[in-house]
Amino acid sequence: xxxxxxxxxxxxxxxxxxxxxxxxxxxxxxxxxxxxxxxxxxxxxxxxxxxxxxxxxxxxxxxxxxxxxxxxxxxxxxxxxxxxxxxxxxxxxxxxxxxxxxxxxxxxxxxxxxxxxxxxxxxxxxxxxxxxxxxxxxxxxxxxxxxxxxxxxxxxxxxxxxxxxxxxxxxxxxxxxxxxxxxxxxxxxxxxxxxxxxxxxxxxxxxxxxxxxxxxxxxxxxxxxxxxxxxxxxxxxxxxxxxxxxxxxxxxxxxxxxx
Length: 259
Ligand SMILES: Nc1ncnc2c1ncn2[C@@H]1O[C@H](COP(=O)(O)OP(=O)(O)OP(=O)(O)O)[C@@H](O)[C@H]1O
Ligand SMILES: [Mg+2]
Fold this sequence. Notes:
binds adenosine-5'-triphosphate; binds magnesium ion
């Protein structure tokens, strides 16, 4: 992705981070959100989800974002991963100014820099687990044999080596989510964005998947942002931010975790 170069300068939400040159290796924040605004124009007028939202996520940090349904958590995650564009403000991810990306570069960014996990796995049920995991590699032109081998290695990482040739549609919910985690990480992104990754699982399986995310976050030196309604799981993250009424506040303590 030669044409995806760091921007020469950028505002910083909380620290005087410097962009440009070899900055990606020396900057402390993988994600910087500055004065972000997102509004939707609906039949009933303008819906402003947030305005002036600023925060950073440090390299290697595992951040949880919580908040009521409709607060804008998914929308925010989409903006962090260049799946949507802000109405105003800036997002820098891995030193890249997302708003400046062309459509083609944004697609390259999504394929290489970020891994996504959703509440629903969105696997292709008729394809095998290995084929599903290999998809992002095939999409960027890697050879089939090599892509399948990397996919199998990743299935091993999520402890599903013995399911590589099983159809995704025949796996359990927890297994499907582990496959989608392998698919998110097979491209070796710097950032993992997860939107309620355990929201569709029973509490025991949710715990297993969350532990796996934690382990992979550490072993692959990821920077992770995890949206969750599960305060117990959120408490397992390095930091918890709550999105509420368009503002982001840090939660210092959990009084009574609700699963
Ligand atoms: N494309 C759109 N057009 C208009 N309104 C939208 C659009 N997408 C989302 N919204 C509205 O924005 C608000 C925030 O949606 P979002 O999905 O980000 O919430 P959320 O915090 O992820 O909620 P949940 O916890 O239920 O997943 C909602 O009120 C939703 O109806
Ligand atoms: Mg959501």
